[in-house]
Amino acid sequence: MNAPSAPIREAVILAGGQATRLRPYTDTRPKAMVEVADRPIIDYQLEWLAGHGVEHVVVSCGYKADVLREHLSARTEGPEVTLLVEDEPLGRGGALRFAATGLRDSGAPYFALNGDVLTWFPLDAFTAFHREKGAMASLALAQYQTSWGIVEVDEGGTIEGFTQSPMLPFWINAGVYIFEAAATELLPVKGDHESTTFPRLAEEKRLAGYRIDGFWRGVDTVKDVKEAGEQIPELFARKG
């Protein structure tokens, strides 16, 4: 049995999907291998997880799996990685359930990441929050930043100013999770957990949301690659 305060030592990363909105980057590689500031997304993720004590990561993939396999086999640092290849597209929920079969301790909680997320926030604080809530699963939440400019206008119709791409008072699924072992059986064999498992757990009050205080960026489009490539060097420079 795992002690309630034991650190989380394993994680899964979903690296499948063809990511058509990221073409031409994904013509020759899976989304997790797209380079942002000269490094593949998955390298940032593995380094971040290792920095918080994660020792073993299961990577679930399908599209261009050989590219990912070659890259991961050449890594000499970070957590040990097990690569699982989907025979057919399983959807995000199915891929999570499939990836969990590669975990070494089937009775322990684990982190899960979407393969297109770049983020840095304290996973120990996330874990403590999850345990304090007694949740079956917890989602990291990022504040929503619109890509549109906002027009500030008074009641009389006079424009007072403009704000480009502001943060809005809404929170979105950041694609980083903690699952208790029992939650794995609640994931669909094939399909999306966001339309099946999560609504069920929310209705049962067993789903928690942790608001991120740190950098987060989803990489879904060519524009995201460019903008994240500018943001990350600045972020690392500020951190020294």
UniProtKB/TrEMBL annotation:
Q: Which SUPFAM superfamilies match?
A: Nucleotide-diphospho-sugar transferases (SSF53448)
What residues does the Nucleotidyl transferase domain cover? 11-232
Pfam families xrefs: NTP_transferase
Q: What Gene3D superfamilies is this protein classified in? A: Spore Coat Polysaccharide Biosynthesis Protein SpsA, Chain A
Q: Which CDD domains match?
A: NTP_transferase
Q: Which residues cross the membrane?
A: none
Listed InterPro entries: Mannose-1P_guanyltransferase, NTP_transferase_dom, Nucleotide-diphossugar_trans
> What PANTHER family is this protein classified in?
SUGAR-1-PHOSPHATE GUANYL TRANSFERASE
Name of the protein in its database record: Nucleotidyltransferase family protein
- Which organism does this record belong to? Nocardiopsis endophytica
Q: What is the lineage of its organism?
A: Bacteria, Bacillati, Actinomycetota, Actinomycetes, Streptosporangiales
